[in-house]
Amino acid sequence: MTPTRSASYLLATLLLTAIPANSAFSATSAAPAKTLQEQTQGLASQPGFIDLWRDTAQGRVLLGVSALDQPFLLMSSLPYALGSNDVGLDRRQSGEVKLVRFQKHGNRLFLVQDNTRFIAGSKDHDERAAVAESFAGAVLWAGDILATDGGRHLVDFSTFLLADQHGVAARLAETKQGGYAVDAKRSAVLAADARAFPDNIELEALLTFQGPGQGEWVKQVAADPASLTMRQHISMVRLPDDGYRPRTYHPQSGGFDTGYVDFATPLASSLDVRWQVRHRLEKTDPGAALSPVKKPIVYYVDRGAPEPVRTALLEGARWWGSAFEKAGFKDAYRVELLPEGADPMDVRYNIITWTHRATRGWSYGNALANPLTGEIIRGAVTLGSQRVRQDILIAESLLAPYGKSGGREKLAEQMALARLRQLSAHEVGHTLGFAHNFAASRQGNGSVMDYPHPVLKLNAQGEVDLADAYGVGVGPWDDYIVKHVYGQFAGDEQAALAQLRREAQAAGLTYVGDTDARSPGAAHPHGLLWDFGPDILKTWDSLSAVRKRALDQFSFNVLPDGRQAGEIEARLVPVYLLQRYQAEGLARLVAGGEFEYAAVGDIRAGAARGGVRPVSAATQREALNKLASTLQAEYLALPAHVLDVLTPPSQGYERNREYFETRMGGVFDALSAAEAGAAQSASFLLDAGRLNRLAWQHARDAKQPGVAEVLDLLLQRTWRRDAIPATLAGGETVQLAANWVVLDTVLQTLNGGKLHAGVAAEVRTALADLASWLGRNPGKGVTAASRKEAATLVKAYLQDPRSVTLRPLPPIPPGAPI
User: Fold this and answer.
1) Could you count the other beta carbons within 10 Å of the beta carbon of residue 129?
2) For the whole prediction, is pTM greater than 0.85?
3) pLDDT in tens, 384-393
4) Which of 316, 409, 538, 660 is most open to solvent, judged by the fewest CB atoms within 10 Å of its CB?
5) 268 exposed, middle or buried (CB, 10 Å; 0-12, 13-18, 19+)?
């Protein structure tokens, strides 16, 4: 581990490695014609971290810069935004945090960004210079000095404010919305909104981006998609004082890290230096087990959030208070409503923003943190407003509460608000420095930092029960992470943290982060998004019963009065695909392997285990069998009473991404639904990484399932299966739809080039065997046509893959976020 260094030492290192100031431009620069007083006469002034003058008549902001070569933090944000979840330019979105400084060259000031990724934490000047000369910094802006008075240099900062500092144009291009650029004639510095405070200044501009206006997503949200007008906010923030003590990051902490490459570390040490990201929190009595703090952490909820949302956000965010108290901090954490008239863009406020978009989308938590030490200066949470409505839709689709007595429709809103409380706590957790833990659901309400699926069950009467859908309060992992990230210890800090980790392991707390959870081919069986329960196999069975009950009662009772009848199709999606996340969980068991994040010292001390431990062969086969059942008509075919109520959207309405695709001329397409359901399972199971692991696990232990066994089972349950029960209306056609999805997925995986050669050979052998079997078993009717076509396709592909145009896999309506 890298020894802890003071903030002042790190700052001094960067000061000495910064781009050197000089007077190279002085020969071509003229002296200012007017004094500072003359330049600012009649302008409203405001002293602060950097003095500023507001020229509202000319639309300018003038800065009086006195501290040269003194680093500070610069961050952009968007107080007024685009409103498209797909593009991602959201209301009050925070941008990149940069460490910058002003430098004087001749009669000009330069705003220079330091390169904080590479340093030399050494007292030797030449050693520091070698690093400084090796990696480029950046000049972000330069402007003429209008006047100088007593070491204070006056500049017009307007050109910086009118440039696209947030990267709006780049984001629009990245999301294929077209080439946009700032139109200076339709942009303005909002001088009246400029404010200076002792430790920060806040500046704003109205920017209009001119572009082609042809992008699908800008056309969905903008008044004029060719002219996108937003506001850009710039915060310039003093670096915190030297009182903060950085904490070395540990991979088992569950927190976020920041750091740099330090070329001055000893040869036997890692160049990689990482600090834990966290707020400054100091006890007034460091020796007390429970002590008040010098300055509490306070978050403020957006006044734009309506009731009952506002109360839910306040309640959920406040859950962290109990964890801080368990960590020894009394009254150290509060959540309040933003004071009336307060500026939510002011970085002095930790803010929870209620953000509207055209469609539902993700929420997130960001932090303005010192890149040198990890100290958080400001937390900023963005909560998408449409997620709560999606949760109500899911609950109503499961309950079918309308047209009945008993008031069960109220349960849907109650579930959605329970989810919102958890979401508020989750996103605030990110801004406190905490990462996702996608293994916490193994312990029930283990952590608000997991992605929770509602805990669904059937009650004694066989009805869907939402009473315990979402937990209340933070969980045991959250208590641990607050202690590990913020705890203060009287003795050896590293020894105390190691003891915390041993206690967490003894309590069965498991940690799996984003890297090992989000990939379709991820290996860790516990790193799952949107799962619940300690045993995914048992969860699958219980959720199967809920899905069956919800489909059995599916009717127009899933919709309240006043909704157009065609919306019933959208209500079917979350019921039909209810087990989509648990299907991924089953796939994760196949070729799955457990491992832990650890430091070598913890492994030696017995506080962590190294290596990867495969899931047992019996568990893999049980999961494989359950997952294969989702590729059969008995699972995929909709009941007749459901098909009979599915109504196309009414005039003036249309299907959107929340519906199943239709290729049936505007009416509901049961085959597209079946294809989507089959693709959900097949794409996870047949991921190239999973097949490669299957082959390797089987090579090391012949008792483990291998690639041939998995493919044989899938093809046996689909293409080679027995006749479909005659009682299943349309079952044969639905099965053929699933069969084609399986074959297309196998071919896409084989064609992707990510399989090891030996694994690809096994896949080709399985395909050749399938083609041979199909030739010997032609079938009858529609089955005969598909079998003949499939055999022809497989033979052609195996002979020359370039001669075959592979079908894309079917689209699946979005599930997350919920």
Assistant:
1) 14
2) yes
3) 999 999 999 9
4) 538
5) exposed
